[in-house]
Amino acid sequence: MKNALNTSEKSNHKELKRKILELSNSNDWDSALLEWKVYEIYKLDDWNDNETCLCGHYPIRNICILKNVDNNNTTLVWNICVNQFISEEPNKVFTSFERISSDLKSWPCPELIKLAHNKWVINDWEHDFAISRYNKKRHSEKQINRRIIINRKILQCLKKTIS
Ligand SMILES: [Zn+2]
Predict the structure, then answer these.
(1) How far is ligand 1, taken at its centre, from the CA of residue 57, in Å?
(2) Is 110 within the bounds of a domain?
(3) Which domain holds residue 119?
């Protein structure tokens, strides 16, 4: 499947730690991690070149920009690497995004719904509807059609917005 996530791929942990520490104020790994927040996540469009993760992994197309809140350093990391030490959220978002891409009737995860709402890709009502229907087993045809409309919008939310 095109663009499928391959979570079994190994990232270079040691190299990633070394580079993150270089960009952090703290020399201690555990406290250095506290300096980093996920700043932006996006998926490269077909016409974008591949990127390289901070750890050296290439090619990557699911991008997380991390920002150090203490010194304002930013860095570009693969979602699989972010998942291992800073936050599972981007990985959940990308996985859910892939699922919707291949099946518009599937439910977006709450993390993806919130991201789409934060970017105003979906409005308050659509956000509340998607959150309230999440994990419900039975849906009317009308609700499924509504979900498809919302999912089409959500598929816009991983476009790159920063340069
Ligand atoms: Zn990496």
Answers:
(1) 5
(2) yes
(3) 90-160
